[in-house]
Amino acid sequence: MNNLVYSLVALLIFYIVLVGEFLLPTGGLLGAIALAALTASLVFAFKFSTLAGICVSAFIAISSPFFIMFLIRIWPNTPVGKRMLNLKRGQTIQPPRKKTNSGTPFDQLTGQRGIANTNLLPSGLVTINGEKIDAVSTGMPIDAGSQITVVKIDTGHVQVRELSKDELKATEPPEPSSPQILEDSLDSFDFE
To answer: Do 126 and 114 meet the contact criterion of CB atoms below 8 Å apart?
Structure first.
């Protein structure tokens, strides 16, 4: 066999051992073997010819990053990855969604309105739907007692802003009035 065949076999060994490094807890031993196989592949390719060495080098330079990214992507789903990440059977790698004390996910708070219990400089306590929640002001400080709205949830933090005067006017409820049927029925009673 010639040096080009040895080079391709060493390259194949590199990729196989690299997969083993990601799947088995060897403490880097298989990684060192993979690096040795990669070096041997390049040496044999350049011994065959300069063009073969350049081609093998280009192939390694292009394919290795994609291959390693693929291995990193599947690693959390492997038995070793699950053990290292401390995942239970059926558990996903996504962190659990933060919820309020009543169980409402923070994601559903976007657009909700409430009142600032403390000064938000920029963080503080707000009440939304009767629940006290830690929140962060998105801009200027917000005084205690001001009406706020939830702008977004960012990395588990509720971000709020103070309602403008126009928004407050638009949300003021109309004067309460009793229905006409109730008024008519009250008029028919004789209260004397």
So the answer is: yes
- Which amino acid is it at 101? N
Q: What tens digit of pLDDT does each residue of 66-109 get? A: 998 998 888 888 877 777 777 666 666 666 677 778 888 888 88
Of 11, 24, 22, 20, the residue nearest 63 (C-alpha): 11
pLDDT band at 168, cuts 50/70/90?
A: confident
Cα–Cα distance for residue pair 165/147, rounded to 1 Å: 10
The answer to whether 131 touches 73, Cβ cutoff 8 Å, is: no
Distance of CA 142 to the CA centre of its chain: 28
The closest of 120, 156, 153, 157 to 139, measured between CA atoms, is 120
Tokens of 26: 């060897």
Measure the CA–CA gap between 140 and 148, rounded to whole angstroms.
12
Tens of pLDDT, residues 21-57:
888 888 889 989 999 999 999 999 999 999 999 999 9
Give 111's DSSP letter.
T
The H or E element containing residue 125 is strand 123-128
The conformation of residue 124, written as its DSSP 8-state character, comes to E
Distances (CA, A) of 156 to 86, 95, 106, 134: 21, 10, 7, 10
Tell me the H-state helices in 24-141: 29-48, 50-74, 79-84
Quick one: which of 118, 117, 99, 116 has its CA closest to 108? 99
